[in-house]
Write a structure and sequence with these properties.
alpha/beta; OB fold (Dihydrolipoamide Acetyltransferase, E2P); 6 strands; 143 residues; 4 helices
Length: 143
């Protein structure tokens, strides 16, 4: 009887721990696929996209305590943080700083003072890659 109680306590504790863990980032091919949104949509309606897996393109700047994705390069240059979202990039993406990138991750409405200057944040970033310009990728942008 004591063994059953101990085993039950251990199983309950394990279930509580697993239940409170953050879910992993979606895997390729998993349903549903990310929502294609623009930075304008995220900035204008952050509550609408809170907790959703999104795909967005913007200007990325990475620095210690200053990782963000902006609507335009000028928004970064002029420090207009409301036209950007805080970014938690995966490790090894430092080479993507100061260029336009495509990102897939979970969007969260800004909810604390550290991110208060931004219109939200992108967490659990699963995909982060450079976005080519028309000049760099003429096959992609046919007229």
């Amino acid at each position: 009887m004591l063994l059953n109680r101990s085993l039950g306590s251990v199983l309950l504790l394990a279930a509580l721990c697993l239940g409170s863990a953050r879910p992993p980032a979606p895997q390729p091919g998993a349903q549903p696929s990310p929502m294609n949104v623009s930075m304008v949509q995220l900035i204008a309606n952050p509550k609408e996209y809170h907790g959703k897996w999104v795909r967005v393109i913007g200007f990325c700047h990475l620095e210690f305590e200053g990782n963000a994705l902006y609507l335009h390069r000028d928004d970064f240059d002029r420090a207009i943080s409301r036209n950007g979202v805080w970014l938690n990039p995966p490790d090894g993406k430092e080479g993507l700083t100061n260029q336009y990138v495509l990102i897939e991750g979970v969007f969260e409405d800004a909810n604390n003072e550290y991110e208060a200057g931004f219109s939200g944040k992108l967490t659990r970033v699963f995909r982060m890659e450079p976005w080519a310009s028309r000049k760099e990728a003429p096959k992609v942008f046919k007229k």
